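WP5 quarterly update. Target: MFS transporter. Source organism: Flectobacillus roseus. Length: 420 aa.
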Amino acid sequence: MSEQLTPPSAKKSPYEALKYPQFVAYMFANSFITMALLIQEVLLGYEMYKVTHDPMALGLIGLAEALPYISLALFGGHLADLYNKKTILMLSLSVIILSSVILVWATHSTTQLPQHNLLPIIYGVIFLIGLAKGFYSPASSSLNPFLIPKEVFANATTWASSFWQAGAILGPGLAGFMYAYWGLTNSLWFVVALLCTVMLLISTITAPPIPEKVEEKVNIFQSLKEGIAFVFKTKIILYSISLDLFSVLFGGVIALLPIYAEDILKVGAEGLGILRAAPSIGAILTMFMMVYFPPLKHAWRNLLLAVGGFGLATLIFAVSTNLWISVIALFFTGAFDSVSVIVRQTVLRYWTPDEMRGRVSAVNGIFVSSSNEIGAFESGVLAKLMGTVPSVIFGGTMTMIIVSIVWIRSKELFKMKVTD
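Structure tokens (predicted):
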């Protein structure tokens, strides 16, 4: 497919994508699994930091999930292009549910595991979830475009991202309060219930047919090579996901929030919930605004400005010692990040052929996973070596530098127009 810069479009209602029931079911499923896994992440991160008081413990959580995901995501994308996407989702989700049940058992008061046994079990379960996500994420991302017509991709992206952000708000926001009032194990039971709900929603979706071009069995290595080559030759896709990779890899502070809550701002578990929810509140409010005012007329310019704003807000958060200034700064990191999500996901949907969606989604997922989970490990390492605040200042500064470099090197993409 050629790198066309201006796809055909027509003016649609802001609610056009909501006319498709299976897409709505997909949105709720995506929101609930996001909510469940983020609740679990916050609960485990806070518990492990309370037990160890070691920033590396937080970084290792990200690494334990990222390594298996990155190792399998391309293979998962290959399978998503060849086989029934719904079946892959259901099997992967079953593994995630089983893993979460193991966490309930391991943290239950009657189990009474010593720390030297509990920590390896937690890391092992996170590793298992990362393996399952290596198959689940490419299948889920590649399923989405089949649920709605191509002409409403941009509108669907906005709604899907908004529902995802709703889960991202409620998950971290609830987690701190759940930990404080329900305890760790009961909160993990809630996670299991949410994941079971996701399975019910996915069961209502009809799997799309396998594209004709991939009905024949192909060499897996050739298949993966084609997916990677497509991303690297399509500059719009390559630059957009690379920008997300490096900005969040260096500028992300989410993994260090337990340290800020416990040692710097001294606001405890409830304050951690507020801090974790702030970026997603900013993101979802911005998403709803973009239903009416999509950022696609000057998409590349808006993307670069948004990532630059993300870096600036990160620097403000880094030096703040006031809870509400910190919350406002995190709010704006989410608001700016939501703009890049809309642009990047719309680009992926428009310029990826149907028969390659699984593999391209996998490459994109690896970039996103690298920026989040590997970024969490990087944050933990730098916080241990440099101190928490200097490491966040370093990350925000690197984000600003990266935006400047990409701005200079991608001038031809300022001509890109994506209108809904």
